[in-house]
Design brief:
Strand order of the largest sheet: 3-2-1-4-15-16-17
CATH topology of the largest domain: TIM Barrel
Number of helices: 15
Largest sheet: 7 strands, mixed
CATH architecture of the largest domain: Alpha-Beta Barrel
Bound molecules: guanine, fe (iii) ion
Helix content: 25-40%
Structural class: alpha/beta
Number of strands: 17
Amino acid sequence: MALALRGTLLSPHAAGGTLFEADGLLLVDAEGTIRYAGPFRAAKYRGPVDDVRPNLITPGFIDAHAHFPQTRIIGCATGPLLDWLANSVFPEEARFTRAAYAKTVAAELVGRLAQAGTTTVALFSSSSPSATATCFSALAEAGLRGIVGLTWMERLGPPALRITTKAAVAASERLIRRWHGFDHDRLRFAVTPRFALSCSRSMLRAAGDLAGAHDLPVQTHIAENDHEGVATLKAHPYASSYLDVYDQAGLLGPRTILAHAIHLTRRDFNRIGETDSTIAHCPDSNFFLGSGRMRLKPPLSLGIRVGLGSDVAAGRSFSMRRAMASAYDNALAVGHPVALPELLRLATFGGAEVLGCAATTGSLEVGKEADVVVVPQRRATPTLDAALAGLIFDTDETHVARCYVRGRRLV
Ligand code: GUN
Ligand code: FE
């Protein structure tokens, strides 16, 4: 075997439930495929073993929503949303037309993702095509898995950040040819209209058409903030709801990731379910910008796929461990506590479902590609509850010890 890791195994099962082996073994072949994930003893494996006990071995984390050009502005407390965008986000994102700056920050980004144990990420770039290409290159080189989108915005924000529909389509098509499907689908391109307020109806339609033509993932923001919702219906008076703006543009579907989804009605959730669209829950960002509290129960009870997003830089950490802790707090605050195994599922397999790569990654199961992290664990003989508690809440040090994608260790 190319990789044999002995430690505490902790992972959701794709079919439901949790894999927990206090003394477990993970075997990975030369192709990076998992060949065994179970009790150390039962494996009867005689080859050399990399013993990481007492540490925890979990699936790499999946961040279903983050912003590459916001890597350096975590913690800028200028919210709520529309003020924060104007004061802190747009001036920073405008810097990414400078190639050297984009390259420096992209290197920081991939370093921080790997340190946090995030092996797969859905990223918004800026509206700069060259910065977006730089982001793809950095992920390619680092060995990470992800989807990346050029951020379409023709309204709101300074002129330097605005891009016409024609230019956005042309640049996206170039990026699709170069990057979509790179390294056996390790990287994919996502059509990324920033949000309804930054796009005209025709830009949104063009985005829907482009996604349909190439069968691409779509990512955008929805119903994050009350004022944003009111302004959206003013800017798109033909629509019956925020969701309807995207629906009418052909932007809903099984490859669509809707970030936030806080201020939605039952009817909206029904429509998200009907179209098989997905949701990125971003609780830490929602706390930081005072956006409101999303309820997990309506989408989960409808069988809607939900993942967890850091939403850096509104989220204050790249660590999905911190995102899980915030999701826990949020669930308590809305009166529907969420169990710890469910949080781990959201941060791993749930994200894989949202990003459309659940057949490949998101859990430690035979036949899947080995996207794995080794997380420091304090207890030598842990129980399932103690392992989950340490992983989610004992995060004074959020760096993971090791991070692998397809069995290949990232540095
Ligand atoms: N809505 C539109 N753009 C953004 C962004 O960059 N971050 C967040 N959190 N919400 C947005
Ligand atoms: Fe966001």
